[in-house]
Amino acid sequence: MPAGAGVAVVDTPAGAGERELEPFLDVASAVLVPVQPSAFDIEASARFLETLATHPRVRRGTLPVALVVNRIKPQTNAAQQALELLRGWNFPVVAQLRDSQAYTVLTGLGRSLFDYHSAQVRAHQDDWKPLFHWLQQVD
Fold first, then answer.
1. What tens digit of pLDDT does each residue of 59-76 get?
2. The domain 28-138 belongs to what CATH superfamily?
3. Is the pLDDT of residue 7 over 80?
């Protein structure tokens, strides 16, 4: 970790294994696992989470792990079924980030979701509040 850094976010590849993650898990404050609400992604995440659950800090409960459902279309039956399945896992679902073109448009403008305050964008900002709350609790 660079000297003076308050927070470091490490974005690992989806297929990262225990060996690649071990150095990060030994010093991490928390682990967020993004999961897309598709059968393929849920299956891949399940295997990853099974491996993650064997890490000593996760087993002891000293390394909090949470799920962030990404690119969800909340009104669909598939999304609701995915959420029901994910809520049955040992790790909490702390946020549901909607599938929205706002992310694509804002990225193209070099902006974040939090740089704008239209009613539509504010609704997407609200999706992040439970995640921020969870992160403050584990800090």
1. 999 999 999 999 999 889
2. P-loop containing nucleotide triphosphate hydrolases (3.40.50.300)
3. no
CA distance 1 to 82: 36
Q: How far apart are CA 55 and CA 93, in angstroms?
A: 20
Other CB atoms within 10 A of residue 133 CB: 11
Residues in the chain: 139
Structure tokens at 68: 């962030």
φ/ψ of 14, rounded to 5, equals -60, -30
Distances (CA, A) of 15 to 19, 47, 110, 134: 11, 10, 28, 25
pTM of the model: 0.87
Per-residue burial over 58-94, b if 16 or more Cβ lie within 10 Å, else e, is: beeeebbbbbbbbbbeeeeeebeebbeebeebebebb
Question: In the structure, what pLDDT confidence band is assigned to residue 10 with cuts at 50, 70 and 90?
Answer: confident
Per-residue pLDDT of 36-55, as tens digits, reads 999 888 988 888 898 889 99
Cβ burial of 51 (10 Å; 0-12, 13-18, 19+) is middle
